[in-house]
Design a protein that fits this description.
Number of domains: 1
Distance between the termini: 76 Å
Order of helices and strands: H
Radius of gyration: 23 Å
Shape: rod-shaped
Mean pLDDT: 74
Length: 55
């Protein structure tokens, strides 16, 4: 029964895998960005404070 149904199943499976991969990548990216923003904000504050103190 490899016809339009089989192709549709394979196509849907590919879509599910691709969508799941994209969602996982977005979740990881959002987590990294969130942690990066927190760390960068602290680092930037330290850098600006250091530059101001030295200047």
């Amino acid at each position: 029964q490899v016809g339009p149904d089989g192709w549709a199943d394979a196509y849907d499976h590919g879509l599910i895998v691709s969508v799941a991969f994209v969602l996982a990548a977005l979740i990881v990216a959002m987590a990294d960005v969130g942690a990066g923003r927190r760390g960068r904000r602290r680092d930037e504050r330290q850098d600006t404070d250091a530059s101001r103190s030295t200047a």
